[in-house]
Amino acid sequence: EREFEETSTSFKSQTVFRGNISNLTCSRDNVVKTVVFPVLYSVLFLAGLSLNGLAVWVFLRIPSRSHFVIYLKNVVVADVIMTLTFPFKVLSDSNMASTGLRIFVCRVSSVLFYLTMYISILFFGLISIDRCRKTLAPFKGTNAKRLARRKLLSAVVWMVLLGLCLPNMILTGKTPRSPYFKCSDLKDQAGLYWHEVVNHVCQVIFWGNLLIVIVCYTLITKELYKSYLRTTTRRPERLRASAKQKEQAKRKMNTNVFLVLAVFFLCFVPFHFARVPYTMSQTRGLLFNCRLKLFFFQLKESTLFLSSLNSLLDPLIYFFLCKSFRTTLFKSLRLPPGTCSWLLERGSDTDSNSTTLKNVCASIGPSG
User: Fold this and answer.
1) How far is residue 55's CA from residue 35's CA, in Å, rounded to a whole number?
2) Which pLDDT tens digit goes with each residue over 193-211?
3) Which residues, including other chains, have CB under 8 Å from residue 126's CB and lie 6 or more apart?
4) How far apart are CA 173 and CA 186, in angstroms?
5) What integer pLDDT is reported at residue 27 of this predicted model?
6) What are the start and end residues of each CATH 1.20.1070.10 domain in the chain?
7) φ, ψ (nearest 5 deg) of residue 29
8) Which of 52, 109, 174, 368 could form a disulfide with 88 if both were Cys (CB 3.0 to 4.6 A apart)?
9) Please, what sign has the CA dihedral across residues 288, 291, 293, 299?
10) Can you list the alpha helix ranges (DSSP code H) found in 175-268?
11) What's the pLDDT tens digit per position in 322-347?
12) Which CATH superfamily is domain 30-312 in?
């Protein structure tokens, strides 16, 4: 019996030792998670706070006279909130946060991060619809009633998503039993169920807006191609050269709307494709070994960083697509005449007429 007990104890010790080695090998707390990503998010926080702070300062000076500007202002708010969550993620991922701060990250900070991500996705869909409408019907104006409806729509988007996310905060109320806990350990059964419901809703939001973006930019591409054909086939030869130059300038202006498409696909598409196998590795653990789980976790974190990069890339959309933003920025910075002459041809925002913009741009000088 003693020999059996010694053999059994030895076997258990070897099993525990191997398990510890496996856990160390497959632990999420590796140099990528605790060092690389915290450094990247720190840089992103500083750059994003500067650019989005500038964007807020400029948009406060711009009246909401177009659907496009209304949507962009909502994206700015979402980007600022997302940027403010980065320091908490840095402290949590680098294992420098206290237990209380890690609980705050699970209950509040992470929820706000995903809230602002899907608000941005929804407004990207609305912006794509607006850009498509402007391309297909460039002379169709707006009025106070339509602007009021867009503001109401924006408020509804915020209220609905806040309503979805608020229970995630409330139902993440359990006290952790150990310093080593996951956010799911803080949720009760109702919290886990609601979290699953919200995940499904977010998937619908993403795939629905992805379809909207693809349809809108397919229509925009067709319209630009038709415009190109009209220029090359319906003009007399002696007038074709000058008309072609004007049309090229117009196409250069219109093709900038594809910046929205590029940012959407770079920031949001990789994360949602990576999220599918990651979720499967978490819910169907028997099908995945430890190393594979670690791979999908790192893939999810990498694509999540791309989603965070949205807060830094959105100011490019404001600058290149919104003429009123660009003009107000140059005027506020008191840049010399001619600074925005090469940019004035670009952009597709028509919340102000081009003559007014040219006059404003021409009036920019050292004296402001």
Assistant:
1) 30
2) 898 889 889 999 999 999 9
3) 67, 71, 153
4) 6
5) 62
6) 30-312
7) -80, 65
8) 109
9) negative
10) 189-233, 237-255, 258-267
11) 888 988 888 888 776 555 555 545 44
12) Rhodopsin 7-helix transmembrane proteins (1.20.1070.10)
Q: Are 309 and 52 in contact (CB under 8 A)?
A: no
Does this model's pTM top 0.85? My answer is no
Longest dimension (CA), the chain: 107
The CB density around residue 298, as the number of other CB atoms within 10 Å, is: 18
Low-confidence ranges of the chain (pLDDT < 70): 1-29, 231-255, 283-286, 336-368
Q: How many CB atoms lie within 10 A of CB 57?
A: 12
Look at residue 366 in the predicted model and tell me its pLDDT: 35
Distance CA(204)–CA(206), nearest Å, equals 6
> Do 274 and 300 touch, CB atoms closer than 8 A?
yes
Instruction: Give the Cα separation of 316 and 142 in Å (integer).
Output: 25
Alpha carbon distance 173, 188 (integer Å): 8
Q: Can you read off the two tokens belonging to residue 232?
A: 């090359």
Per-chain mean pLDDT for the chain? 79
Asked if 110 contacts 92 with a C-beta cutoff of 8 angstroms, the reply is no
H/E element, 288: none
User: Helix 110-136 crosses helix 144-170 at what angle (to 10 degrees)?
Assistant: 160
List the structure tokens of 339.
Answer: 């600074």
Ordered DSSP codes for 11-71: HHHHHHHHHHHHHHHH-S-SHIIIIIHHHHHHHHHHHHHHHHHHHHHHHTTS---SHHHHH
Q: Which two tokens stand for residue 240?
A: 């074709």
Q: What angle do CA 79, 201, 152 make, to 5 degrees?
A: 55
What does the pLDDT read at residue 183? 84
* 47 burial type by CB count under 10 A (0-12 exposed, 13-18 middle, 19+ buried): middle
Q: Which residues of 123-151 are buried (b: 16+ CB within 10 A; e: fewer)?
A: bbbbbbbbbbebbeeeeeeeeeeebeebe
pLDDT at 117: 96
Give the closest residue to 166 by CA, choosing from 85, 111, 100: 111
- The whole-number pLDDT of residue 236 equals 58
DSSP 289: -
Q: How far is CA 66 from CA 217, 314, 320, in A?
A: 20, 18, 16
